[in-house]
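Usage example:
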Amino acid sequence: MRELIEMRKDLEQCDQQILKLLTKRLSCIGEMTEYKKAYGLPILEPEQEAVRQETLLQAIGDHGYKEELLGIFRQIEENSKCVLSKNLFHYNIALIGFMGAGKSTVSAYLKDMLAMNEVDVDTRIVQEQKMPIKEIFARYGEEYFRNCESNAIISLKDLRQTIISCGGGAVIREENVVNLKKNSRIVLLTASPETILERVKDSDERPILNGNMNVEYIKELMEKRASIYRQSADIMIETDGKDITEICEELIQALIRLEA
Ligand code: S3P
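Running the assembly step on the lines above writes:
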């Protein structure tokens, strides 16, 4: 049997080799990101992730440590995504737009594809106030809710690499826009009133729409808010008729152009 000291040496050598390869892999991610940016190529390629997974599964076969190996590669994939998003954005991405414009869906997809952190302003308020939004409105009124919203936005000031999903009325107050702009680019998501109605019609969680769940009201409120939304936004993305990958790719490309 080999001596322990020899085995420890082997382990150390493995670590050194792994470190070398991982460093190479991560800088390869950085290089690919720069290449894609330079040639305007798609950043999100969900199909490539599936291809890598398939190749990996084949290479691992029925190895006795299959689960452990897959776990390590899951982490490598995740950390590579972190490197990708660090290379893309040195700021947070604040999503704004009317209720049902797709902020939560876009936030979840970007989090998944770019391993960024995710904060939902309304969820913060609910956690802090220990009651649902509709109850905050019913008990204390809209002005109180808007104060909670402003405070929640102030509390985000130290966040980095984060997608901030804002409530539909968050940019009504100029101070919130100023505070968001300190460390974020603001992305406006839009959709037609018909699409919005389709997305929100079964929810009773939006007090602003209570008793007004119809296209006419949505259209009217959207028009009232339209100029505030547009003035607050660094970029604007229309979501109608597009799938989630298209929307997020368009968003990323528009943010890249903003920095160019
Ligand atoms: C509001 C939108 C809601 C929530 C609150 C008020 C608004 O968020 O903040 O009900 O004034 O548009 P969502 O846009 O996430 O539904």
